[in-house]
Structure formats: structure tokens, C-alpha cells
């Protein structure tokens, strides 16, 4: 386009000089025609990117690694001039996502639609948009962009592998059987109803039974016989170990096309294991708590249900090994959150044995610990994990060892080493 404009400028100058020297009217007429074409083209190009409405439609702003993400676009011409061509350039930050499109001619009051779909290859928080719409005049002399700064946030959850069984060592699970202990506190387990007595709170009244019996009836509750489970994920900088090949690969090497192809870093293995365990315990209807430093502190008190799973997956989607705190410091800071009898499932790849001292303190307080150990020596052969594994055995802390390229489902189903 600049070459075309320069050619017209040069032609107009030569024609004007010829008219001044010869006095012929035809040369001046040609100058006026060229100037008119330039002016008309500039005005047309300005209007070409006006009178446009563009909308992007997404079914959900949540997706997961390995799943497709689709989006629809509708661009409508609300002006009085036809849009001869439009180039829509998308600047979304999602890896591998391409929504840019060259739109053919759109007549006034008409619209054009297209769909785009991509497989999510990396967990994280991304943005859809902004957009830039470019168009021009019929002569191809001017091209003007219009920037649309609207953005939408999308979260891609980490991949989850199926977990068939996690064998907590003998003695770790104190609950699980019916323990009909009535309590004055409101719990999730309603044991029955009884007549109202002075002092009962209004929120304990069972209104349907009250209406049926024509007298106030209140609900009775019993203690939850199942112990709480806490999931603690270690994302300290000291625990990060990558396959040496990662240093020489481009960023696309981090992409993950399915739950069976995990990037060779302890960070990604920890995220996938933690996410998989979270879904496993939620499906068992266990009260699950979560704690991690991502690097900022994230803690969710034990709850049941998929809402808790959603919270954990959103936290793990943006988790990175950036916390400057050591695993020992993190356990010491969160020790007050774990009640006696709690089962603590720790996911870590730390080779620092100092955290075992804190783990023994927790064990003496009646907190049962199971360590899911992501073996860093399988990612970097120069490291040796035999010392930390031996120390865990001496400290009588059961652990499940997971190495690079292991089948996560089978690895989690194995009997813990004690």
C-alpha cells in the first residue's frame, strides 16, 4: 500500500509540473482526479473500520488440559457502506490458540460468523483478546486498524489422571465406621428429630415435621465418623527439579496434550498428582482441605462436594514453584490448621531432610501423615534421593514414590513404603 500511494504521489507531482510548464488543462484535471481518489480512499478506509459490531461467544470460561476449547465469533456490519474485506487479528494469550480470520465482503446489515477450536495444552490463567480489526479502501491505498481492548479471562485446569485406590497405611484412618455420638453442634449428619426444648435455636427446627405433627420439632445431629483429609502441596523453589533437556527446549516443550503426557518437571507432576488426589477424595465424599504456597498462601478448610474441588483446581491451575519458604517452614506455619486425628497427604519433591522434624512433631500430635514423594533424581540423574527416602523410613513416615514417566494411576495404588 505505501508503494501504491507513493506512485500516485509521484504521478501527481509530475503531472502538476507538466501542467505548470505547458499550461494544458488536462494535466490539472488529472491532478484533481488523483487528489480526489486519495481523499475518497482515505475516507472510505476510515469508515471501513467503523460501524462494526463483533462478539465472541464461549460456552464456558473453564477448561482443562487435553480438552478442546471452542469459541464462536460474529461480526456484523451496522454501517451503510459494504465492508469489502476485514482482517481480524486476535491477541489471546492461550498457547496454540488461533482465532485470527480474514473476513470476506459483508454487505450493510449483514453478518459473518466463524468458529474456532483448539486443544488446551497448558494449565494456567489466560486471556481471550484483545482484537485488532484492519480494513481499507477499494483501491488498496490505505489500511487502517481499529483496536478493541475487551478481554475475557479463562482458566485451564490441570490434567487429572484416574485414581483407583490410595492405600492409607494401617492405623492412619481412625474413622469410617458408624459412631452415633450426638452433638449440640450443627453438622452435615442429621440423626433424627425430637421435640423442641427451650434453648434450641430456630435454625434447628424441622418445619415439615413441625407442620405434620402440629408441634415444634428440631433436628438432632451426630458427629461425622470420617476424619478430615488435608492435601498439602509443596511448591517451594528448593523443590523444583526439571529434566535437563528442558533447558535447551523452546517454551512449546512445556505443552501438554493429554493427561498421559506430563512435562518432565517435578512442578507439573506435583500439580497433576494433587489434582488427581483431590478429585479422588471428593468422589469418596470425604471432607477435604487444601493448603499450599503458590507462592502466596492458599488454604481451604475441609469441605465436601465439587465446589471444593473447583477451588483446588483453580489454585493448582496457576501454581508454580516460586515460594521462598522451605517445606519445613510451611508445615510449621500451617500446623495449627490440622486437628488431632487428621490425615495429612503431603505432595513434595524436596530433598531437604529438615521437614521430617516437623513431620515427626505433627505425628506426635496425633496427625497421620502420608507423603507422595515425586522423586527428583528421576528428573536429574545427578541428584540422589536415597538419603531422604531412608530418613523417611527411619522416621516411620509412609511414602509413595513416583518417578518420571511412571503411570500415576498405578503408582498411587501401590502400598506405601514404611
Automatic annotation (TrEMBL):
Residue ranges of the TM segments? 7-27, 33-52
Domain named DUF58: which ranges? 193-365
Q: Which Pfam families match?
A: DUF58
Q: Which UniProt keywords apply?
A: Membrane, Transmembrane, Transmembrane helix
The superkingdom of the source organism is: Bacteria
Please name the PANTHER family in this protein's record.
DUF58 DOMAIN-CONTAINING PROTEIN (PTHR34351:SF2), SLR1927 PROTEIN-RELATED (PTHR34351)
- Identification of the protein by name: DUF58 domain-containing protein
Write down the species: Phototrophicus methaneseepsis
Amino acid at each position: 500500500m505505501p508503494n501504491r500511494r507513493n506512485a500516485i504521489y509521484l504521478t501527481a507531482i509530475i503531472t502538476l509540473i507538466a501542467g505548470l510548464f505547458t499550461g494544458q488543462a488536462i494535466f490539472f484535471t488529472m491532478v484533481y482526479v488523483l487528489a480526489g481518489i486519495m481523499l475518497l480512499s482515505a475516507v472510505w478506509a476510515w469508515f471501513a473500520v467503523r460501524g462494526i459490531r463483533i462478539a465472541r461467544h464461549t460456552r464456558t470460561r473453564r477448561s482443562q488440559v487435553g480438552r478442546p476449547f471452542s469459541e464462536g465469533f460474529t461480526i456484523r456490519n451496522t454501517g451503510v457502506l459494504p465492508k469489502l474485506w476485514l482482517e481480524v487479528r486476535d491477541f489471546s494469550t492461550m498457547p496454540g490458540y488461533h482465532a485470527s480470520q480474514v473476513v470476506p465482503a459483508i454487505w450493510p446489515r449483514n453478518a459473518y460468523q466463524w468458529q474456532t477450536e483448539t486443544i488446551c495444552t497448558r494449565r494456567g490463567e489466560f486471556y481471550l483478546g484483545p482484537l485488532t480489526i484492519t480494513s481499507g479502501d477499494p483501491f488498496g491505498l490505505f489500511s487502517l486498524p481499529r483496536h478493541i481492548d475487551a478481554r475475557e479471562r479463562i482458566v485451564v485446569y490441570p490434567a487429572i489422571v484416574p485414581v483407583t485406590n490410595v492405600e492409607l497405611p494401617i492405623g492412619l484412618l481412625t474413622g469410617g465406621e458408624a459412631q452415633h455420638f450426638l452433638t449440640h453442634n450443627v453438622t452435615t449428619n442429621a440423626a433424627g428429630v425430637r421435640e423442641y426444648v427451650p434453648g434450641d435455636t430456630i435454625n434447628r427446627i424441622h418445619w415439615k415435621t413441625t407442620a405434620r405433627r402440629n408441634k415444634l420439632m428440631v433436628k438432632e445431629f451426630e458427629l461425622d465418623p470420617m476424619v478430615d483429609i488435608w492435601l498439602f502441596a509443596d511448591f517451594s523453589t528448593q523443590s523444583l527439579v526439571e529434566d535437563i533437556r528442558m533447558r535447551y527446549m523452546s517454551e512449546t516443550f512445556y505443552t501438554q496434550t493429554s493427561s498421559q503426557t506430563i512435562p518432565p518437571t517435578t512442578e507439573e507432576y506435583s500439580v497433576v498428582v494433587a489434582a488427581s488426589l483431590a478429585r479422588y477424595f471428593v468422589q469418596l465424599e470425604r471432607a477435604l482441605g487444601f493448603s499450599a504456597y503458590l507462592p502466596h498462601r492458599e488454604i481451604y478448610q475441609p469441605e465436601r462436594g465439587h465446589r471444593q474441588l473447583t477451588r483446588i483446581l483453580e489454585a493448582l491451575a496457576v501454581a508454580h514453584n516460586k515460594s521462598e519458604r522451605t517445606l519445613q517452614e510451611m508445615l510449621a506455619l500451617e500446623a495449627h490448621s490440622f486437628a488431632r486425628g487428621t490425615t495429612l497427604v503431603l505432595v513434595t519433591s524436596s530433598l531437604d531432610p529438615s521437614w521430617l522434624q516437623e513431620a515427626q512433631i505433627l505425628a506426635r500430635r496425633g496427625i497421620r501423615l502420608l507423603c507422595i514423594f515425586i522423586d527428583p533424581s528421576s528428573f536429574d540423574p545427578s541428584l540422589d534421593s536415597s538419603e531422604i527416602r531412608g530418613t523417611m523410613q527411619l522416621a516411620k513416615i509412609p511414602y509413595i514414590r513416583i518417578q518420571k514417566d511412571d503411570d500415576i494411576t498405578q503408582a498411587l495404588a501401590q502400598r506405601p513404603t514404611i
